[in-house]
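Q: Please design a sequence for this.
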């Protein structure tokens, strides 16, 4: 019985410690909601805002060098010398990324 109480106590302390760690991590990432907002489970959490990816013209010019349609579109609109729009319709990488 004594061992069971010790195991339960250790489990409870671990659970509470993980909760504090998770709250600290979420707060450090800026995902703690303002007072009064609540999310699933009644906690004070909100989804992290999806930050827009920032792309830079770094010399890539081909579709095979891109990782998404969004990235290819950025390169086509902002970077000189790209070769991603063979039919010149304004949609890059139609066979690979932007179907």
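A: Design:
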């Amino acid at each position: 019985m004594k061992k069971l109480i010790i195991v339960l106590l250790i489990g409870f302390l671990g659970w509470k410690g993980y909760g504090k760690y998770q709250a600290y991590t979420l707060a450090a990432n800026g995902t703690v909601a303002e007072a009064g907002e609540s999310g699933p489970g009644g906690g004070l959490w909100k989804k992290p805002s999806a930050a827009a990816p920032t792309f830079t013209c770094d010399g890539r010019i081909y579709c095979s060098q891109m990782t998404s349609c969004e990235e290819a579109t950025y390169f086509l609109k902002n970077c000189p010398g790209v070769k991603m729009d063979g039919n010149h319709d304004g949609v890059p990488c139609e066979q690979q990324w932007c179907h």
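Q: Thanks. Anything notable?
A: Residues 52-99 form one domain. DSSP finds two helices and no strands in the chain.
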